[in-house]
Amino acid sequence: MLQDIQIQEVNNKISQLYPSFSRLKAEINKAIIGQDKMLDALLIGLLGNGHILLEGVPGLAKTLAIKALATAVDGSFSRIQFTPDLLPADVVGTLMFNVRDNDFVIKKGPVFSNFVLADEINRAPAKVQSALLEVMQEKQVTIGDESLQVPSPFLVLATQNPIDQEGTYTLPEAQADRFMLKVLITYPTREQELQVMRMISKQESQPIHKVITTDTIQEARALINSIYIDEKIEKYILDIVFATRFPEQYRAEKLSNYIRYGASPRASINLAIAARAKAFLAQRAYVIPEDVREIAQDVLRHRIGLSFEAEAEGITSENIIETILGSVQAP
After folding, report:
1. 54, 175, 275, 281: which one has the fewest Cβ atoms less than 10 Å from its Cβ?
2. 10 Å Cβ neighbour count for 265?
3. Residues forming a β-bridge with 79
4. What pLDDT, on the 0 to 100 scale, is given for residue 167?
5. 153-162, 215-224, 283-292: lowest mean pLDDT where?
6. Burial letters for 15-50: b for 16+ Cβ neighbours within 10 Å, e otherwise?
7. Residue 166: what pLDDT?
8. What is the DSSP-derived secondary structure letter of residue 59?
9. Which domains does the chain carry?
10. Among 230, 323, 239, 220, which residue's Cα sits nearest to residue 281?
11. What angle do CA 227, 229, 231 make, to 5 degrees?
12. Distance in angstroms (rounded) separating the CA atoms of residues 46 and 52
């Protein structure tokens, strides 16, 4: 009985906060036609305090979607164009010598913003990519002997082209694991592309207005932790993640030769948070198994290491996750 009352209270709070995020999505849709899955992923990352990695071929509005999101939120925004000659100091900042004071002073880099667009992150070598490791995990940057906090909320929104294109560097596993979601962006439908053509040719794009504050985002993030997730669903999440490590224990023995390493504990944490955020966007105060299943691909695809045998046979992480979801029994 007490649990039902708590769920109802959370449901009432969701009813108050959800319209702000609905307006946010509508505002982004002024610049983006279609790509609903990508927009939902951006909102889940925003609600779940998690970083997002968007992957797709050029021209699919990855950068535009992120810029539109940052414009619609009343917060600071910076963009870093990753290139092969970029240096770590160009990202996080550095110490500079002040001749007048005869001392070193800190010059902050572009990561000191609410929203950081790491554009084409796989165009820069690993030493530059790794400059984001500390700030993505701990929300702070160490420059010299001083640690500086970044503003809150803080969200890294990275884009990358498929790694088989020239001039790209695969993200290190430790770096990829810090992204809550990795979303694959696909081509628009024929009708959607026609709408894009007409909008561009007629210059019909509408200005994007700020429709949500960082305070509202922080309030919604706090509410996410109150969304009810049953013990059976928690077990379901753990079963999915553990099946990536020990597939033979979940009637998926054939996957053992295809998996080099399974998902980390961050996968379990982020799968639970993302499922709660998905419930919020569905205006529910509780998580259902479908929330977990629908977000599982985005949470897990970059956390599973494929063996050489899998690559040789054309087996992808998506194939493995689909097999696991079919093998693990849902509550």
Report:
1. 281
2. 9
3. 117
4. 65
5. 153-162
6. eebeeebeebbebbbbbbbbbeebbbbbbbbbbbbb
7. 64
8. T
9. 20-212 (3.40.50.300), 227-327 (1.10.8.80)
10. 220
11. 155
12. 9
DSSP state, residue 116 = E
In which band, very low, low, confident or very high, does the pLDDT at 160 lie, cut at 50, 70 and 90?
confident
Could you tell me if 111 and 141 are in contact, meaning their C-beta atoms sit under 8 angstroms apart?
yes
Beta pairing partners, 149: 140
Most confident of 67-76, 134-143, 276-285: 276-285
CA atoms of 54 and 42, how far apart (whole Å) = 9
The amino acid sitting at 28 is: I
Question: Cβ(268)–Cβ(233) under 8 Å?
Answer: no
What pLDDT digit, counting tens, does each position of 52-95 carry? 998 887 777 788 888 888 889 888 889 999 988 888 889 988 88
Q: DSSP states of 206-249 as a string?
A: PPP---EEHHHHHHHHHHHTTSB--HHHHHHHHHHHHHHH-GGG
